[in-house]
Amino acid sequence: MTTGSVLIADSDASVRTSVQALIESAGYRTLTAANGEDALRVAHEEMPVVVLLDVQLPVLNGYQVCRALRDALGLDLAIVLVSGTRTEPVDVSSGLLLGADDYIVKPFDSSELLARVAALVRRVPALRRHANENIGQLTSRESEILSLLAEGLTQREIAQRLSISSKTVATHIDHVLAKLGVHSRAQAVAAAYRRQLLSSVR
User: Fold this and answer.
1) Mean pLDDT rounded to a whole number for the chain
2) 167 — phi, psi (to 5°)?
3) 0.70 cut: is pTM over it?
4) Interatomic CA distance for residues 126 and 167, integer angstroms
């Protein structure tokens, strides 16, 4: 049995059931909530490692729950926002700015969801400590690339902006992810906003 529990918050009972079955098939204990208020209560009572929050939750929406959880529990859990309607870049950016670790668009690939959950379950405690220790170790170039990622530029666009190869950009991004203790570019940007890194690199 894999350690750590996953909270699935979605107003659609069929979605909750299918995602719960998927997550449990990987060996995780699951918790469920049908609205934002329940999600907050369950999270406080059970302290899951990962929370999957649908953005369109009733009572309190996913953005509100995300902000409340981050304010109350800090970095002790990973928050993933999920949406099939709020899929524009501004929606994703809003979620990350509110403290989400990741943002998944529906319909999602089952294996991808499991991979993201697994990485967070394994790494939440360690990545938080690691990130705090390594925040000041970004080079000026890594900080510059992190800032451009936060602006929404692609790897190719960053390469063109900085007049370097796309492969070099990829290498720098890998270093940034390692130093921040995260496994995706979205999480790197979220961590940078949360720890106020971007104000120092612009």
Assistant:
1) 85
2) -65, -40
3) no
4) 28
Q: pLDDT above 90 covers what percent of the chain?
A: 50
Instruction: Quote the distance between the C-alpha of residue 116 and its chain's center.
Output: 9
Of 71-85, 86-100, 116-130, 136-150, the range with the highest mean pLDDT is: 136-150
- What does the chain look like in DSSP terms, one character per residue? --SSEEEEE-S-HHHHHHHHHHHHHTT-EEEEESSHHHHHHHHHHH--SEEEEETT-SSS-HHHHHHHHHHHHTTSSEEEEEESS--SHHHHHHHHHTT-SEEEESS--HHHHHHHHHHHHHHHHHHHHHHHHHGGG--HHHHHHHHHHHTT--HHHHHHHHTS-HHHHHHHHHHHHHHHT-SSHHHHHHHHHHTT-HHHH-
The structure tokens listed for 141 are: 């170039």
CA distance 179 to 135: 7
Which residues have CB under 8 Å from 167's CB, separation 6+?
none
At residue 81's C-alpha, the angle toward residues 43 and 192, to 5°, is: 100
Measured distance CA(93)–CA(96) in Å, rounded:
5
Q: Using one digit for the tens of pLDDT, what is the confidence trace for 17-28?
A: 999 999 999 999
